[in-house]
Amino acid sequence: MKLLVDASALLNIIKLKGADALGYLKGNYVLTLTPYEVGNGLWKEAVLLRRISVEEAIALLGYISRVYGMMRFLEPGSWVDVLKLAHELKITYYDSAYVVTSVENGLALVTDDEKLAEKVYENRDVVKKLLGGEVRCLSSAEVLSQPPGSG
Questions:
Q1: 3-state SS, residue 137
Q2: What is the pTM of this model?
Q3: Cβ neighbours, 10 Å, residue 68
Q4: Mean pLDDT across the stretch 10-23?
Q5: CA 147 to CA 151: how far, in whole Å?
Q6: Percent of the residues in the chain that have a pLDDT greater than 70, as a whole number
């Protein structure tokens, strides 16, 4: 099964697996907005929360930039469906874009946003009615519990 990896899961997979993360990510998918979310997350960690240094954030972003070269980029086919789903599930437009794109492309959504995964699960009938399909949410821990490349 191919995966659509959101920013939260992408960062966690790379933090946990380092260079071995490529085996889990290569050939899978991110949204075109993911690099911006990741960059903002690293900025927040370094500048606002001071959990990592700016140099560490830059080094991590350099590695992540190389990982993007091994992944495929997608966008939602229907921006209108993104807004409809965001409204129905009361989630952000960004999160909705991941859900819509995963359904449109038959991809499992890898997210470490527990609230998002819960909303999708609790509203699976709404998702199916609106988008005509279901989404399977996995955490990065679930992906990492499998051999690399197995999805």
A1: strand
A2: 0.93
A3: 15
A4: 92
A5: 8
A6: 99
Look at residue 4 and give its three-state secondary structure.
strand
Average pLDDT of the residues in 108-132: 97
Cα atoms in the Cβ-side hemisphere of radius 13 Å centred on 147: 1
What does the pLDDT average to over 50-71? 94
Q: CA dist 95 to 8, 33, 57, 101, Å?
A: 11, 11, 23, 10
Residue-level pLDDT at 151:
63
Question: What is the C-alpha to C-alpha distance for residues 148 and 146, in angstroms, rounded to an integer?
Answer: 6
Interval 27-35 mean pLDDT: 97
Instruction: Answer for the pair 2, 107: CB distance below 8 angstroms, yes or no.
Output: yes
Read off the tokens for 134.
């279901």
The CA-atom distances, in angstroms, between 119 and each of 52, 92, 96, 99, 116 are 31, 11, 11, 11, 5
Q: Which amino acid is located at 138 in the chain?
A: L
